[in-house]
Structures are given as structure tokens and as C-alpha cells.
Amino acid sequence: MGAVAYRLALPLELSFIHPVFHISMLRKYILDSSQLLEAPVTPLDDKLSYEEEPMAIIDRQVRKLGSKEIVFVKVLWRNNIVEEFTWEVEKDIQAKYPHLFQSTDKAVDASEDFVNLSIRVDSS
């Protein structure tokens, strides 16, 4: 291109990135095979986005909105890099991911079998 700008041949997946870069943004690449990492393969759609899968229901809460009561669930989402939690409407999540509620129902039933005990410890 010129003395201070380079045009890179980017793959089609990166066609949304402008291919011309100033020389100050580029560095010489030296191959070091010990630094290579296997990147997990994530299926992407046309907009280069993907749908995360929920891993578990962590909590449940009823919120009042005027005269209505709406049940929310705290969902653990896991993508390739981080885990995050979001509050979602229970009906929406249950319709889309019914398998998450089978395990939480069992956990709720099992927790009813336990009795809370208070133990007093004297610190003398």
C-alpha cells in the first residue's frame, strides 16, 4: 500500500474488519509452537454470534409487578470463556429448557427431608 500502511489478506469470516493497518499496529510474528493453544470450536451463525446453553438453575424468586406475581429463576450460563448468571422469567426458560427443571425439582424434594438444627457452642 505504502511506506506506513499495509493491506492484510483477511479470511472471509473477518470481512467486516477493514484490511488496511498502520505500520505501528503491526508486529513481526515469530512462531513458537509451545505457545499454541487449541481453540474450542463454537458454531457461529451469519452474524458471528452463538447461543449459550444454560447449565443449571441456581435460585428462584417471586417478584411483584403491580398486581401480578412473576416467577424468576437465576440461570447459570456457561460459554467458552466465563460463567455468568442472569435472572430470567421461569416460564420462558422452562419452555425452552425443560431438562433444567427436572433436576431442580428433585433437589427441592430432597431438601424437604432435612431438619434445621441449632447447636450452641460455649467459648470458654
Automatic annotation (TrEMBL):
Start and end residues of each Tf2-1-like SH3-like domain: 1-29
Domain Chromo: 56-102
InterPro entries documented for this protein: Chromo-like_dom_sf, Chromo_domain, SH3_Tf2-1
Source superkingdom: Eukaryota
Record's protein name: Chromo domain-containing protein
Organism: Nicotiana tabacum (Common tobacco)
